[in-house]
Amino acid sequence: MSTEEIRAIELLSRLSYGRVATSMRAMPFVAPARHIVFEGDVLIRMHRGLGYHRACNGSVVAYGADNFGSEADSVWSVQFTGTARIIEPTEAQLAAFGPEPRAVDGEPFDPVFMRIEPQFATVHSLDYTSERPAPATPVPSFERHLHHVA
């Protein structure tokens, strides 16, 4: 494992959620996922009901996470690119994931687990030690749901 990959794994292990990106029917998409770093592997948990796991399984995906919402002086982003495969997690891996959400978009949560075999990793950092970024403007809440085709 390269120094960059080791650093990316270490940073990713500090967070619980990220985003998986791939394409479905030739259209790109990004979906949130819960992740863990377990014995050097990147494992993700997604909701089966959305169908995104079918597009990811056996495909090259990108998985990214960041600390952009933190108050840290050093802001960073990591991304892994590799092949995703559906797995059956061990009891220890299930325990590491922690509790599942009750529902996703009003549907009962049905987990599917994947392992990403990283081919390469990148780490990007922004240093704000001399000045702080402007606080994010709150985004209004909308009660609009887009229908997905899975």
Descriptive report:
By secondary structure, the protein is mainly beta. Helices cover 15% and strands 46% of the residues. It has helices spanning 3-12, 52-56, 91-97, and strands spanning 17-24, 27-38, 41-47, 60-66, 74-87, 103-104, 107-108, 111-127. A hairpin with a 2-residue loop joins strand 6 (103-104) and strand 7 (107-108). The longest helix is centred in the first third of the chain and has 10 residues, at 3-12. The radius of gyration is 16 Å and the shape is globular.
Summarize this entry quickly:
With 150 residues, the protein is mostly beta strands. The protein is built from 3 helices and 8 strands, in the order αβββαββαβββ.
Largest sheet: 6 strands, antiparallel, barrel
Low-confidence stretches: 142-150
**Proportion of residues in helical segments:** 10-25%
Please write the string of helix (H) and strand (E) elements: HEEEHEEHEEE
How confident is the prediction overall: mean pLDDT?
A: 86
Number of helices: 3
Structural class: mainly beta
Q: Tell me, briefly, the overall form.
A: globular
